């Protein structure tokens, strides 16, 4: 019997449900990127967090973040190279309960764990 998947904490939902190649370019098929995969791409590539910091933010193991990140990058590459539409939907996630981050659409105000992580792992050079 396999272990049930833990829901990943997501601070913001995507502002649009997907993307597709420009109208004049032929495209075939759709690649589906989960909301949890979207969040990992947002945190690592846009916000500049490490995988470990991302794991703290999403309340999952770093190895889980690594797997999600590899899957998301593969799907993004497939959509770009094979000219496929990209849908962002589904996945195992729960919205964070910090109401402010959902209203404003940016980082979660509940960063105590992440800030504690930074303090604990700060190198005094």
Automatic annotation (TrEMBL):
<dbReference type="Pfam" id="PF02001">
    <property type="entry name" value="DUF134"/>
</dbReference>
<dbReference type="InterPro" id="IPR002852">
    <property type="entry name" value="UPF0251"/>
</dbReference>
<dbReference type="InterPro" id="IPR013324">
    <property type="entry name" value="RNA_pol_sigma_r3/r4-like"/>
</dbReference>
<comment type="similarity">
    <text>Belongs to the UPF0251 family.</text>
</comment>
<protein>
    <submittedName>
        <fullName>UPF0251 protein</fullName>
    </submittedName>
</protein>
<dbReference type="InterPro" id="IPR036388">
    <property type="entry name" value="WH-like_DNA-bd_sf"/>
</dbReference>
């Amino acid at each position: 019997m396999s272990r049930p998947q833990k829901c990943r904490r997501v601070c913001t939902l995507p502002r649009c449900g997907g993307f597709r190649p420009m109208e004049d370019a032929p495209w075939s098929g759709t690649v589906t990127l989960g909301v949890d995969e979207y969040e990992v791409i947002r945190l690592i590539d846009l916000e500049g967090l490490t995988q470990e910091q991302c794991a703290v933010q999403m309340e999952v193991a770093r190895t889980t973040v690594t797997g999600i990140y590899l899957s998301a990058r593969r799907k993004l590459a497939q959509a770009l190279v094979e000219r496929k539409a990209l849908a962002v939907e589904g996945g195992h996630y729960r919205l964070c309960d910090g109401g402010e981050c959902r209203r404003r659409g940016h980082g979660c105000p509940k960063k105590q764990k992440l800030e504690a992580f930074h303090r604990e792992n700060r190198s005094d050079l």
